[in-house]
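Whiteboard transcription, Tuesday session. T.W. wrote the structure tokens on the left side:
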């Protein structure tokens, strides 16, 4: 599984936007489709909420990629 980190500069990022920002989805709509198809896991559990709030410390998995969300540097 490929791994990457996403630096979070706010309190949270919506799941569909995280997929777009990390390049796993071409758009927010594509990110929502991936979630709707059951392709996404958050902290090891299936996630069906397209706009779930993802916070620093959480891990998102989708299509063979593991994204670790870390607190950004201000």
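and on the right, the sequence the group agreed on:
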């Amino acid at each position: 599984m490929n791994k990457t980190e996403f630096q979070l500069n706010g309190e949270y990022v919506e799941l569909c936007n995280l997929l777009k920002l990390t390049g796993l989805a071409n758009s927010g709509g594509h990110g929502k489709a991936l979630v709707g198809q059951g392709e996404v896991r958050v902290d090891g559990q299936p996630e069906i909420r397209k706009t779930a709030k993802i916070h620093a410390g959480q891990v998102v998995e989708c299509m063979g990629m593991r994204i670790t969300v870390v607190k950004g540097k201000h």
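Someone added at the bottom: Residues 9 and 52 are 17 Å apart (CA to CA).
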